[in-house]
Prior knowledge:
Oligomer: single chain
CATH class of the domain at 1-139 and 1117-1189: Alpha Beta
Number of strands: 23
CATH superfamily of the domain at 1-139 and 1117-1189: P-loop containing nucleotide triphosphate hydrolases
Amino acid sequence: MFLKRIDMVGFKSFADRTGIDFSSGITAVVGPNGSGKSNIADAVRWVLGEQSARSLRGNRMEDVIFAGSESRKAVNFCEVSLTLDNGDHHLLVPFDEVSVTRRMYRSGEGEYFLNKQPCRLKDITEVFMDSGIGRESYSIIGQGRIEEMLSTRPEDRRGPFEDAAGIVKYKYRRREAERKLEQAASNMVRVDDILVELSVQADPLRVQAEKALAYQEIVDLLGHLEMGLLLVEIQRMKSGLAEAVSDTLIWMKQRDEQQTALLTARASFESARETLAVNVEAQANTQQLLLSAVEARQRTEGQLHLWQERVQVAQAGLVDKSNQVAALVEELDQLAVRKNQQEQRLANITTSLTINQKQLQEAVQTLDLQARANLEALISTVNESLIDHHQAAANRRNEHRAWLERLQGGKTKVNELQTRKEEWLRRADALTVQIGQSVGVLQERSQQVATLQQDLAEGAAILRELSHQEANVGAQFQRQHAQIAGLSSRIEVLQELEKEFDGYAMGTRGVLRASAKGQLVGIHGAVAGVLQVPPELETAIETALGAAAQNIVTADEGQARAAIEWLKQHQGGRATFMPLSIIRARFLTASDLARVEQLPGFLGVAADVVNCEIQYKNIVGHLLGQILLAETLAEANLLAKALSYHFRIVTRAGDVVYPGGVMSGGSKSNRGVSLLGRKREIQELLQQLISLRADEQSLMDTQKQLREQTAIIQDQQSKRSRELEKMRAQKAGFEAELVSQQRELENTRDRIDALEDELDQVTSDLEQGQAKLQSANSAVTAAAADIANLEQQLRQRRRELQDWDEHLADAREVLTQLRVRSAELAREKESLAGTVVEHMERYRTLSQQRDTAALAMTQLQNSLAEAQNQVYVNEQDEFQMSNQVADLQDSLADLAANRVTAEGALSQAERVLQQTQQSLAETNEQLHRRQVQVERLDSDLNHRLTMLGETYRMTFEWALAHHTLVVDELSAKQQVKDLRQRRDALGEVQLSAIEEWRRLSDRIDFLQRERSDLVLGKSQLETVIRDIDKEMSRRFAETFEQIRQEFQVTFRQLFGGGKANLTLTDSGDVLSAGIEVMAEPPGKKLQNLNLLSGGERALTAMALLFAILRVRPVPFCVLDEVEAALDEANVTRFAQQLRRFAEETQFIVITHRRGTMEDADVLYGVTMQEFGVSTLIGVRLIEDSGIVSA
C-alpha cells in the first residue's frame, strides 16, 4: 500500500484546489520559511482525524480554514482527501483503492467520507487501526515532534511502540469489554433486588412443600429396603477385596525389600572382588617402586660430590668482595662530613627566613581589615534602623489623624440611622394588612387542586404496574444483551488466537503462519489441530501428548526438510515434524489389552477416544496407541501393575504413571483454553450465541407491547396533568404573591433589626475611637525619643571609623620593610640549596657503588650457603633412600598377607548372595498366591454387581448414593414400622403445595439463572480482558525487544559508533511501564538525555524512529523538518537511512536541507507568489540528479 495523492482546498494557506501526486521512494517538499510547506503534513494529520487544534499549530479548529489575505476573501469551508493504493490489502477493507475525505465548515460542523460515502470518525479510526498509519502514529512526525519522542515522560513514549506492536485494536476491544462489564454489574444489582422480594413470599410456601415432600420421601423409602440388603453384601465383599489387595501390597513391599537386599549383596560381592584385584595390583606397584628407590640412591651420591666442589669456589670469591666494600665505605664517610656542614648553614638561613615571615604575618594581622568592615556594617545597620523609626513615626502620626476623622464621621452617621429606622417601621404596618387579604384567596384555590390530584393518582398506579413489568423485561433484555456481548468478545478473541496460532511454540507458530501465507507447502497443521477430543478427556489427552501436541504434520520428508530449512533461514526457532509417508502406528497387543479391559477405572486406549480424518490415523496411533486412560491415580496404579509397568497410564485429571513405575501429578495452573479445546469452545460459544439472540428478539417483542400500552395510559395522564398544571399555576401565582408579601415583611423587620444593631455598633465604635486616639498620641511621642537615641549612636560609630583609617596607614609601612628582608633571605637559601644538592648527588653515586659491591658479596654468601645446604640435603636424601628401600621391602610382606584376607571375604560375599536369591524366590511364590486370591474375590464381586445392574438397572455407586443400607432383616422390618409411624404423624398434607412451590421456585431459579448468566457473562468478559492483556503483553514484549536490538544498530549507524539502549521502568508490568532511552554518543560517557546537544537528541530520536520502522515498516511516512537540528555530515547519514528504508516505506519529507533534497526522487516546491496563498511546483529527478520533468 502507498499514498497516491492528496487533494486540498481551503486548507490553511492552500486557498485554491491543489493536488499532489506521490510515487514510491522519497518525495521532498521544499520552500522558504512561511511558504506553507508544513501545512501539507498538517493536512495528512487532519484528514486522519486529528482533534487537537494545538497539534495543528492553531488555537481553534476553525483556524485550519483559509482566513483570507489582502487580495482574497476568507472561504467558508475546507476539505482534504487522501487517496491510498490498497492493492496488497494492507488495510482490511474490500477495496483496491481507499479514499478518505474530511470537510469542515466555518460554523463548526464537520463531515467524514470513506470512498465518497459518509461515515463516522470511528469508522476511519478502525480502518487504520494497527496499520501503522494514524494521527498519533509514528508515520507522521511534525515540526518539533522528533525530540518529543525523548522529551516526554517515559510513560508517554509508549504510543509508537504500541502502534508498532499492533495492540491498539486490542486496547480498543479491552475498553469495550470493560464498558460491557460495568453494564453487567448494574444489571446484577437489579436482579438481586427482585430476588429479595420473591424470597419473602417463598418462605411460608417452602415449609408446606417440604412437609409434602417428606411424606413422599417416606413412602418411597419403604420400597428400597430390599435394595439396601443387597448393597450391604456388595459393600462387605468390596471390603474383603480391599483387605486382599492390601495383603498383596504388603508382599509386594517385602519383595521390593528383598530385591534391594539382593542388589546390596551383589554390590558386596563385587566390592570384595574389586578389593582383591586392587591388592594384587598394589603388590606389583610396590615391587616397581623398590627398583626405582635403589636407582635414586645411586644418583644422590653423585650429586653430593658435585656440591662439595662448589663450596670451595664460593669461599674464595667472598674474600675479594669484602676488600672492595671497605674502600667505598671510607670515601663515603669523608663526603658525609662536608654534606653535614652545608646542611647546617642551610638550616640557619631557613630559621631566619621563618622568623622574618612570622613578623610579616604579625604585621598583616595588625591591619585587621575585618574589624573595620564590621564597624562599617554596624554603621549601616544603625542607619537603616534610623530610617525605619522615621517611617514608623510617620505611620503613628497618620494613624492619629485617621482616628480624628473617624470620630467626626461616626457622630453624623448616628443621626442618619435613627431617621431610616422610623421609615421602615411605617412600611411594616402596611404589609401586615395586605397578607391577611391574600391568605383567604389561596385557601379557595388549594381545594380545587386536591380534586385533580386524586384523579391523577389512580392513573399513576396503572402506569407503575406497567413500568414494573417493562423494567423486568428490560432487565432480562440487558442481561441477555450483556451475555451476548461477552460471548461475542470471547469468540472474537478465540478466533483471533486461533488465526495467530497463539499458544504454540515459536518454531511451530512460525511454520504454521508461513504455511497460511503460502510460503510453505505440504503443511497439514499441528497435531493439536487435526484431533477432535471429547471435552471431558481434554486434560488427559493433552497430558498424554505433552509437547507432541505442537508437532507439525507434513505430507512427506521433503516438505519437513523444507520447513526446517525455512526455520534456519529465518531464525524462527525449532519444531518437530511428523511426515505422513513414514510415520507408522504403534498399538498394544491383544493380550496386553485383555489384561486391563475388565479392571475398574479403565477408560480405554488414548488413540481410541479421539477422532480424526483417516489420513491421520497413523499419527494418532504413533503418539497415543500405547497410552492407556484411567479414571483415578489409584486405578492407574492397578492398570500399571497388571501390565508390569511397561506402558504409560494417564488419568482423567492428568496424573501419569510412567513405564517403570514413576508417577507424576498434582495441580495445574489455570492457563485458559487448551490448544485441543479452543476450536471446540468456539463452536459451542457460536451455538450459545444463536440461542441467546433468539431469546433476545422475543424479549424485544414483549417490551414493545408493554411500551404501546404505557403510551396509551400516558396520553390520558398527560391530559389530566395539563389541567392540573393550569390549576396549580393559578394557585402558585397566589402563593407566590403571598410568599412575596411575607418575605417583604420579614425583610422589613430584618432591616429594622439591622438598623438597630448598626446604631449600637456605631455608638460603640465612637467610644473605642476615643481610646484609640489617646493611644496613637502616646505612640507618636515614643517614636520621636527613639529617633534621637539612634542619631547619637550613628555619630559615635562614624568617629570610631576615622580612627581606624589612621592606624592602617602606619601598619602598611612596616609591612613593606619586612617583605624586602624576606626576599633577600630567600635568594641566599636558594644558592646554598644548590650546593647541598651537588654533594648529595655524589654521595648517592658512591652509595650505589657500595650497595652493588655489597649485593655481589651477599650473592656469594647465598651461593656458599646454598652449596653447603645442598651438601647437607644430599647426605639426608642418601639416608632417606636407604630407609625407603627397607620400608618397601616390609610393604611387600604386608600386601601378601592382605591378599589372603581379601580372598576369604570374597568367598563369604558369594554365600550371602546365594541365600538372598533363595529368599526372593520364596517371596515371589507367596505374592503369586495372593494375586490369585485377589482375582477370585474380584470375580465374585463382579458377579454381584452384574446382578445389581441386570435386576435393578443401576450401578453400585449410584445405588449407594441414593439408597439406605440395611444391616439385617430384623433391623429392616423395624425400620419399615418406624417409617409408617412417621407417615401417620405428618397428618394432613397439601400435595398441591409442591407444585405451587415448584412454580415459585422455578421463577426464583430462572432469576438466579439469569443472575448466573450475568455472572458468567461477567466472568467471560473478565476472561476476555485477561486474554487480551496476555496477548498485548506478549506482542508488546516481543516488539519492544526487537526495537531495542534494532535501536542499538541504527544508533551506531547514525552516530558512527557509540552505544544506546531501551529499558522498561517496570519490567513486571509491560502494559503500563514507561520506556527509558539511554544514549552514549562516541567519545562520551553514558548521560542523561537532557544533557545531549540538540543535534544529538534529534539524531537519537531518528535512530529510534528508524528502529521502529525496521521492526514494523509502515506504507508511508511523513517527516516535517525532522533533520533541522543536524549538521551537514549527519544530514547525509539521515538521507542514507531514508534511502535504505525507501524500498519498503514511501517517504514524504518536508525539508530545507540540501543533503536530504539530493537523495529525493521527486521534489515539490511550495511558494507564495500571492501573499498568504501557497502554490505548488513539482520536479522529478533521476539517479544522477538530472531533471526529468517539471
